[in-house]
Every structure is written in structure tokens, then in C-alpha cells.
Amino acid sequence: MLQESSKENLQVEKRHINGANYTMDITLVNTSLVSIKHGIYCANQDFYHTVLPTKNSILTYHSLQGSSLTLNHENLNVREQAAVLFQESAVPYQHIMKTNAEQKGEFVEIAVNKSYITNLFEQEKDYLEELLATHSSKLIYNLNINDLQLIQQLINHPYQGKLAEHYLNNKVEEAHLLQYHNWRHNKTHNKLKLHQKDKQALYDIKSYITKHFNKDFTIQELALKAGINQTKLKVGFKALFGTTTFKYIHDLRMQRALEMIKSRDYNIYEVAEYVGYKHSHHFSTAFKKYFGQLPTQVIV
């Protein structure tokens, strides 16, 4: 979870809410540049949740589990495994919070000043215009494996004090660069022409990889399985899904490994073997490179 600190520029506050039919645990983190809110909730039915921001900001709401419906602001509904980037005002936001099938929900919010965005994307006029043209402008996108990886790095890290502040500031900048990349990818994808047969082949091979991510493949084997040539597989997969086949495999392995480690039901050797590594030390090295910490440092 987000680490607590008493340093002046890194303020952490934890809240526990007991509602009539839900419970919610919230961690608020503020640095000199960014604000991060991580919420986890459980409920046996939908419930109302009102938020009152203290200032205007550019906010990204990531719905990891469950979904959110906004009653008093147009088109801010967020489904599970999706995000919305918009200009938030210091006015009440009334939400209906929904859980997943396990009656759980989880979200992460990232807020920065408008000047943060305009400075970061100063030369990207089209992007700023689409995001900031009117007060109701917004960008809605599905969370891909890269987004989920970055969010995990944001809320699960081993750092404290000044080092934690630098780390969080850098991760939030990386998150906004990734959002910009998603926006550009969607623009490019809309222009790319793929035959329906090719698209179906790419979706089929993605499903196949998802089921067999712990096996080793060559691009030739995957192309043969998909029934398309290697070039079309590489270019089409990247265009449709925003990543390469082998990056997708690696992401699936790391995400599954993290889930297994958090469950505390497996040792490191068992996790490494399950996700396709023959040697646990190779797995530990890859895990640290991916998440910024060793498997033994993961906070449950």
C-alpha cells in the first residue's frame, strides 16, 4: 500500500468509512506536485458516495474493480478496468458506487494542477485542445496492461520520505505520458485499416496467449497459430492492443505473479515456475525490474 511518512512535502492520511451497507478504506497522499487517492470498498449492494474536492484540478479516475456512475455531472461514468481524465471543479460530485461479482471495488485517483498539464504537453496542441477545450471535455479509455502495471507501482512501493516523494512525482508524470500515448494510439488505430478476418485472427491469438502465457513462443509459432504472416501479426497486434506480443506475455506473467504473491499461498519458487521461469532468481530479477521491488518486498 502507499507508505506513510511524516515528511513536510509528503503527507499521507488514512480514512475508514463505515456506511449503512458498505465499508471503504481510503489512503490520501499529497506531494508538492500531485495528489493520489487509493480507495478499496466492500458492499452488498450499490451505494451513494459524495466527494467534495477542495480545489480545481485535472483528475484521472481509474476504476480497477467495480464501477462508478456520476449523478450530477454529465458523462463521467466509469466502467470496470477503465479510466476518465477530466477537469474537476471544487463542487460536489455524487456517485453511485458498484462492486464486482465478489462485492469489492477499488479505484485510484490522480490529481494535478492545470498548469502541470499545460507545461508537460506544451507542444502537443491537439491533445491539450481535446482535453481542455471546454469545461466538459474529457478523455475516456480502457486500462491496458501498461496502465495497470504503473498503477501497481504507484500504490505498492518500498520508499519513504523524500525518496517516496520523488518516486511518486515521477510515476505520476509517467502516468500522464502513458495516457497521452493511449490517446495517440487510439488516433492511429482509428486510421489503421485491418480486414475483419485479420482482426478476428488477432483477437483469437490474444485469447490464446492469455490462456497459455506461461509457455514460451516464437513469433513464427504465433503467426502460424493465428493464420497470418509475421509482419501482420506484429504490426496488427501493436495497433489493436497497444503493445507487442512478447510485452503482453511478460505483462501477464508479472501481473499473475503479483496476484499469487499477494495471496500468500505460494513460495517464490512456485510462483516463478507457474509463470514460466525455470530459475527463481531470474524471476526475481525480472519482477524487480518490472515493479521496482523484489517479490519478498511486496506489501500485502
Automatic annotation (TrEMBL):
GO terms for molecular function: DNA-binding transcription factor activity; sequence-specific DNA binding. PROSITE patterns: HTH_ARAC_FAMILY_1, HTH_ARAC_FAMILY_2. SUPFAM superfamilies: Homeodomain-like. It holds the Pfam family HTH_18. Residues 203-300 form the HTH araC/xylS-type domain. InterPro entries: Homeodomain-like_sf (IPR009057), HTH_AraC (IPR018060), HTH_AraC-typ_CS (IPR018062), PchR_regulatory_protein (IPR053142). It comes from the Bacteria. Keywords: DNA-binding, Transcription, Transcription regulation. This is Helix-turn-helix domain-containing protein. It comes from Myroides pelagicus.
